[in-house]
Here is the input.
Amino acid sequence: MGSDAGTVTTVVIGAGHAGLAISQRLSGQSIDHVVLERGEIANSWHTERWDSLRLLTPNWQNALPGYRYEGGDPDGYSTMPEISKFINGYAKSFAAPVRPNTLVTSVKKTGDGYLVQTSAGIWKCRSVVLASGACNKPAIPKIADALPASIRSLAPMHYRNPAQLDTGGVLIVGASATGLQLAQEIQRSGRQVTLAVGEHVRMPRTYRGRDIQWWMDAAGILDRKIVDEDDVLRARRVPSPQLIGTPDRESLDLNVLTGEGVSIVGRLAAIREETALFSGSLRNCCAMADLKLNRLLSEFDEFASTTPGIDNIELPERLMPTQVAQRTQLKLNLSQQNVRTVIWATGYRPDYTWLDVPVLDQKGKLCHDGGVVGKAGVESDGLYAMGLTYMRRRKSSFIYGATQDAMDITEHLYNFLDRDAWQRRNKSLVSNSIRRIENIPQSTHSANYRRFGGI
Amino acid sequence: MNNVAINPNTIDNGVNVEALLGAREALTAAPAAARFQWRAACEWVRGTHSRTSIQSFSGLGEEQSHKTSTSFDTDHPEIFASEDAGPTPVEYVLVGLAGCLTAGVAAVAQNRGVQLHSVRAVLSGDMDIQGILGIDPDVRNGFDNIVVKFDIDADASRADIEAIVAQSQKRSAVFDAIANPTDISVVVA
Ligand SMILES: Cc1cc2nc3c(=O)[nH]c(=O)nc-3n(C[C@H](O)[C@H](O)[C@H](O)COP(=O)(O)OP(=O)(O)OC[C@H]3O[C@@H](n4cnc5c(N)ncnc54)[C@H](O)[C@@H]3O)c2cc1C
Here is the structure.
C-alpha cells in the first residue's frame, strides 16, 4: 500500500521486549516514535515457541527499563503465556505507541531519513531502530538438502509438541538449550531420539545452591562487552547454554539424556543416501565443554571467595565428566532405524529481506558496531538495532540485557538527532560554513560508539 | 573381463596375489589376527616443523616392525611465514591416499590378470584456509574436495581399467579414512 501513514522522528520495527525497551527510553527522551509490529505484542513468544517451553532465565531477570517482575515466584521460570503477559503489561505500563498487524515490507534511505513501507501505509522518519528479532528464521545447514524426502524436516520454531510427530524415531541436530530440551521431551514421549552433538556449552541449573544465572549475573560474566572480545565473530556464535527452566530446577545435560535413553552421537557431518554420518569429534567436543564448565565454576568459586557478603552458599563441587561411549556411533541408517523426523536445532538467523539499505555484509549479516548500524568506517546515519546476539554485552540477546542496551542506543540516537538538528540549522543559517562543519572530523561511528557506548 | 589373449600366469605387476589370498583365507579363520595397529611418533622440531617417524606396528597377533625406520618432516611453506622444512601435513594425507589407491590398482589388476605398464596418479585437494584461520566459521578446516586422476597404461579396455580403479577405492583404507567419519581421541598423556 502506498498511502501515507505519517511522519515521526523514529520508527521502531518489532514489538518484542527489545522494541518495547527502546520505545520506553525514547518516550523518556520525548522522541516521538511508533513501534510497528506485524502481529501482536510479543508475537514471537506466542507464534514461534513450543508448548512446554519455559524461559531458562529466572523470573527475577524479567526486567526491562522501568519495569520488572513483581510476581510471587522470582526464582521460577516463566511459561509462554506468562512471558507474553509480562511483555504486554510492559507495553501498557507506558502506553507504548504500538501499531499491531503492521508488516514492514521495505526500509529505504531518503535524502534526510528513511521511508518505511508497511502493509498499512508508508512512514517517513529520521531514524529507524531494527528490533525485529534475531531469531526470525531457522538456520539450517546445507546438509539438510540431502535428507530423503520421505523423512520430515522440522525447525524448532515450527515444533509444538511430540504429538505432532510421527511415532518413529527422531534425529535432533544440535546440542544447545533447544536441542537438549526437545530431545528430553520427545524421548519421554516414547520416540527414540538420536542427538547429534557438536560444540556446546554445558551448565548446571544450580551451583552451590544458587541459580546459575545468579552466578553469571553476580560475577559479571554476562556484562562482558563485545568491545573486549578479541574474536567477535566467534563470541557471537557461542551456542546457548544447555539449560532448562523447570519448577524443580533440574539440570539438563548429555549425561541426563543418556540416562533417559537418548542416543548421543557426534556432529552431523553428512547425509549420504539414507545414512546420516556423524563426526568422530564427539569425545573432543564433550571434553572441551567439560573443561570450559570447570573453568567457569572455578571463576565462580574465585568470585565467591573474594567478594564480601556472599554467604549461605554450599561447598564447591564438580560435575561428573560427560560420559561418551567407548565406541561412538558414526552412522545411522535413517530408514532402517525408522527415523521419521529430523529436527534442526541448529540456531536461528534474522530476516532482513525487507531492508533496502546497503548495511548487510556479503554473508547477509547486519553490519553494526554495538547496535549502531552501518558498514565499518561509514558515518552512522540514524539506523540502529536492538536485541542482536551479543550486540553490546553478552546479555544483549536476553530479556534483561535490553535495559542497558536501550539506554546506550537511545543516548546515541539522541545525540545523532541533536547533531543532525544542529547541522541543519547551521546549514540554513550560515551556508558558507557548511564545508567547515562537514570537515569537522565527524568521528566515524566506531569512534562514536566508543564515546557513547564504551561506558 | 575379456583378456583371452593373455595367459594370467605371465602377468606380473609385482604383487603376490597368492599370498594375499592366502592371508585372506587364514584371517577369515582367525579374525583376531586381523586387528592391526599402525603407529607414528612425532617430535616437534621448531616453529611449524616437526618430524614423525614410523617403524613398529602390530598385527597377526604380535608386534611387528618395518625393516627400517622412516622419518617424515612436516612444515609449511614460506608464504605461511614458515621455513618450509617439508611438506604440509595435509599433503601427506594426499601421499597416503595416492599410495593406498595405487597399491590397490596393482593388486586388483594382478588378481584380474591385467598387466600394467604404467600407473600415474595426480592428486589435488581443495581447501579454503578461511576455516583454519577462523575467519569464517561456516568454512570447514579440512579438504572440501579431493580429486585423484589416474593415468593407466595396461593391457585392458578402458572399462576394465575403470573397474580396477573403482575396486581399488572400494578396498582402500585411506580412501575410507578420508571419506567416512572416524572415532578419534586426542588426549594429554
Ligand atoms: C527458543 C528461545 C528461547 C529463549 N529463551 C530465553 C530466555 O529464557 N530468556 C531470555 O532472556 N531470552 C530468551 N530467548 C532470547 C530472546 O529473549 C528472544 O529471542 C526474544 O524473543 C527476543 O526479543 P526481541 O524483542 O529482540 O525479538 P522478538 O521477540 O522476536 O520480537 C521481534 C518482533 O518483530 C516483529 N517483526 C519481525 N519482522 C517484522 C516486520 N518485517 N514487520 C513488522 N514486525 C516485524 C516480530 O513479529 C516480533 O514480534 C529465547 C529465544 C528463543 C528463540
Remarks:
- Residues 430-455 of chain A have pLDDT under 50 and may be disordered.
- The first strand of chain A starts at residue 4 and ends at 13.
